[in-house]
Amino acid sequence: MEDYCVLQGRRLLLSEVDIPLNNERVRYEPALIPKGKSYLCKRCGNDTPYLFAQTPCVHCGTCVYCRKCIMMGRVQSCSTLVSMHPEPLPIQNKPLSWNGTLSIGQKQASDAIVRAVIEKKEHLIWAVCGAGKTEMLFAGIETALQRGERVCIAAPRTDVVLELHPRLQQVFPHIDVIALYGNSPDRHRNVPLVIATTHQLLRYYRAFDILIIDEVDAFPYTVDKTLRYAAEQARKQQAALIHLTATPSKLWKREIKQGKRSATIISSRYHRQPLPLPMFVWSGNWKAHIKKGRLPAAVQNWIRTHVESKRPVFLFVSKVSYVQPLVACLKQFYPSTEGVHAEDPDRKQKVAAFRKGMLSVLVTTTILERGVTVANLQVAVLGAEEPIFTESALVQIAGRVGRNASFPTGDVVLFHFGKTKAMVAARRHIQSMNRAARRKDHLS
Ligand SMILES: [Zn+2]
Ligand SMILES: [Zn+2]
């Protein structure tokens, strides 16, 4: 009986659950179906021929399997996917326990989200970093819970899921909120509020009345059509779809201009202070410095100034291989330096220690470009000309600074060995949002 509960609103492999065949409440379907000369994987939407391969199979002799979603367990041509309608949820009275106030911009976005929730529409919130996106969601989520609906907030990165989960649990204290990410315990229960990485959406089917996708432009969501497929499959056919971003794609910006995409634009931060502008500082051949176990003098001086004034520092680099050498070099001067990257097993603990003020410098790859909020943070990029630092990545990185109302300013320094178009575009993007915010202030 337990497993029926596990299956509600989800789509799993028959081999993953313990249920009898031919149950009338369960939908059974072949996991791979022929498409053209190749296949379509119903779990992840993959239909690229070279992403299928053959494997020996105890049932069929030889079987085809999907390589695209292999990290979630093998789906092969003799596999069956099972899914089940979720049972209705109880209606929640006054689930929200929050007495903060919204800024004018947040209120606009919040109202637009409530409308989208009620009308089951698609809507985009384009809000600058630090506009206070989480609070904009509260009223919409409350509206859904009061209607007995299911809400999912999907974010591309585990860090963002880990940051959102406690905040939402706090303001919806009597609601079961679960967080799902790569190696999280699979604590699936039939709950009204799920916070998940976009990959985890692949385990859901027609489950959510409201799907909120945070940081829609972020790698890997935009480049990976699997995740778009997942978002499509995970929500009910009649569902609200809300996108949140600080850096929409060119296509979406054009659609907003032409009135083809319903959107709310929030150009000022909740504390009404302008976004810090990135400074460009030439640092010479920094790669050669790293090889010799040194830091360019400009970087060294910048870090010293902030550490001596007890201001926490993020130093972004383009590659994992730069993290350790830089940490080793910085530790000689500042013992409380650490480094993090996506595969780092201690990443959660290090970020937590940094938040508590136990570390003075954190060297990081772009995994921390979004979602992490630390008061009075100072940020630099070493090697800002590297291709991974796109306009939107740099806008996000700059957006880490000055988020706290008590510390609304701070440094954003792009140390470079040759200015790029992306760097200039990021600066322009921030300037134009600041101009728009000033215009609105003038009008209101
Ligand atoms: Zn697949
Ligand atoms: Zn087989």
Automatic annotation (TrEMBL):
GO molecular function per UniProt: helicase activity
Pfam families: Helicase_C, ResIII
Domain Helicase C-terminal positions: 298-444
Helicase ATP-binding domain mapped to chain residues: 114-266
InterPro entries: Helicase/UvrB_N (IPR006935), Helicase_ATP-bd (IPR014001), Helicase_C-like (IPR001650), P-loop_NTPase (IPR027417)
Keyword presence, Transcription regulation: no
Protein name: DEAD/DEAH box helicase
Protein source organism: Ectobacillus antri
